[in-house]
């Protein structure tokens, strides 16, 4: 049985209310945190995104959540300290209707999950990708944050599962600009320069993307954060996908184009490697 | 305490799993059903939309749900037979990750809520509306259905609460076409013809909208279902909002424009009146 803990405000509760707005409207946000030997990875970036997400949705941001998370980690069994914590915050329980109750106590849910297992060749030799047909809707008010309205990703993930041999898919917005992968962010080397979509209209600001951008800045490696259309993406000399669970997957094949893993991709893998020391 | 029942597949269960995909991703759909004297109103339209929504998301559609709903209604106390049933279906509990488990049993949640109370003048004399700044994102794959990804409506409802004196708001999509209200559908009389947005790109096909369109067709009253931009909307000689909970609210004021309740609006109110006999 999965370890799950639920708090209403700062009170531990036994069960989740079926009237929780997280369920009713997807009114909340979440973080997917990799834990290695009992220690959460890139946690400061997860807290930063969670706080920013709460501001964007007008949710409270309780300092108590840090304490609850630390306590949760101590509850893990000694033989299962590698895995994933899903940390979820909702606007809590209130009356029916879209209007939030400003007095509602937010819900915090922490759950423990087995680590994700991927073939190591996907990191070393690269993956095959496809371009997804379904575009992401443009909604600046929800852009960047990891909210609970993820039906687009559910549909995209189903679509991707019907693309034979492909591990990820390139997703554009309804205006034709590249946004991200189905469950990752994307970087590309275009005209010799490392480039990544700006995510101001839609998409998720992934934790590994943010940490990598900071590390690149510290090393004076310039990154162009801008709109990229799909045609321009196809001219890239290197492409890679990344997220905080699996790290960096170089793209080896997209349609009838193939790539060797390039120098900037290798450099980025080296940069993120301290965060993936015990990676399966 | 609210009456709530939860089924996993066709098994009644005591609590909702915090790992339910309805909570994790908003992976599900719902119906808001008005109940008068213990009888659900427009139920055939609710079932039809629920079935269509399940098809659109690739969710199973269990005949069992009809039985569970009927049983739920018999559980209501004799003195509280006027109210709202929220009927919610999710893709159930499965492993972490966007990809649905085809073997997961869907969750059905039924909950009982107090009837909504609105001043009767809003139906007779009309309401004041505003045009909302925030547009709806365009996503044809999710258009029309009442899914659980409702963060746009949560934000819009908060925005509307800051518009003094306004009971509803006109919402456009990111291309500038009128879609609906914050929690209603919208009709207008433009160039003498009853007109309503087509909802192929976003928005919810409301149950009262569908029932009204069918009734108008039976009475040979033509309705133009098409794209309407906000400027054209302002030239309308009648505008009304509708949903299955409150019926029809004529628009009496929008900015510095005012309207008397017009003849086509009155005719539509007459058409829907059998469904609102006991309306508060």
Q: Mind explaining what this structure looks like?
A:
Two copies of one chain form a homodimer. By secondary structure, chain A is an alpha+beta fold. The first copy, chain A, folds into two domains: 4-113, Aminotransferase class 4, branched-chain amino acid transferase, N-terminal domain (D-amino Acid Aminotransferase, Chain A, domain 1); 121-276, D-amino Acid Aminotransferase, Chain A, domain 2 (Alpha-Beta Barrel). Chain A is built from eight helices and 15 strands. In chain A, the strands form two sheets. In chain A, strands 7, 8, 9, 10, 11, 12, 13, 14 and 15 form a nine-stranded mixed β-sheet that branches. In chain A, strand 3 and strand 4 form a beta hairpin. The longest helix of chain A has 15 residues, at 43-57. The mean pLDDT of chain A is 95. At the A-B interface, helix 1, strand 5, strand 6 and helix 5 of A face helix 1, strand 5, strand 6 and helix 5 of B.
Highlighted features:
homodimer; 280 residues; alpha+beta; D-amino Acid Aminotransferase, Chain A, domain 1; D-amino Acid Aminotransferase, Chain A, domain 2; six-stranded antiparallel sheet
Q: How many distinct folded domains of chain A?
A: 2
**SS elements, strand count of chain A:** 15
The CATH homologous superfamily of the largest domain in chain A corresponds to D-amino Acid Aminotransferase, subunit A, domain 2
Which structural class do the helices and strands of chain A define? Answer: alpha+beta
Q: Describe the oligomeric state of these chains in a short phrase.
A: homodimer
Average pLDDT of chain A: 95
Helix content of chain A: 25-40%
Q: Can you summarize the main beta sheet of chain A?
A: 9 strands, mixed
Order of helices and strands of chain A: EEHEEHHEEHEHEEEEHEHEEEH
Counted by DSSP, the helix tally of chain A is 8
Can you tell me the CATH topology of the largest domain in chain A? D-amino Acid Aminotransferase, Chain A, domain 2
Q: Could you give the distance between the termini of chain A? A: 22 Å
């Amino acid at each position: 049985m999965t370890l799950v803990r639920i708090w209403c405000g700062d009170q531990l509760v036994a069960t989740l209310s079926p009237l929780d707005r997280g369920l009713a409207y997807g009114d909340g946000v979440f973080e997917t945190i990799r834990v290695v030997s009992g220690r959460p990875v890139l946690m400061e970036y997860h807290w930063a995104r969670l706080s920013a997400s709460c501001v964007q949705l007008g949710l409270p941001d309780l300092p108590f959540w840090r304490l609850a998370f630390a306590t949760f980690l101590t509850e893990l069994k000694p033989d299962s300290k590698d895995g994933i914590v899903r940390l979820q915050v909702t606007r809590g329980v209130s009356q029916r209707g879209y209007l939030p109750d400003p007095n509602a106590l937010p819900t915090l849910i922490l759950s423990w999950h087995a680590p994700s297992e991927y073939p190591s060749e996907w990191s070393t030799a690269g993956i095959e990708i496809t371009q997804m047909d379904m575009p992401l809707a443009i909604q600046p008010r929800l852009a960047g944050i990891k909210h609970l309205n993820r039906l687009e990703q559910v549909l995209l993930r189903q679509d991707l599962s019907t693309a034979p041999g492909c591990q990820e898919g390139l997703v554009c917005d309804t205006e034709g600009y590249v946004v991200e992968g189905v469950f990752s962010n994307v970087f590309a080397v275009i005209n010799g320069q490392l480039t990544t979509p700006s995510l101001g209209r839609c998409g998720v600001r992934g934790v590994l993307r943010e940490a990598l951008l900071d590390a690149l800045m510290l090393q004076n490696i310039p990154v162009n954060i801008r709109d990229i259309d799909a045609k321009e993406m196809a001219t890239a000399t290197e492409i890679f996908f990344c997220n905080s669970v699996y790290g960096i997957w170089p793209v080896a094949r997209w349609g009838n184009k193939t790539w060797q893993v390039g120098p900037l991709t290798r450099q980025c893998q080296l940069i993120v490697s301290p965060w993936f020391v015990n990676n399966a």
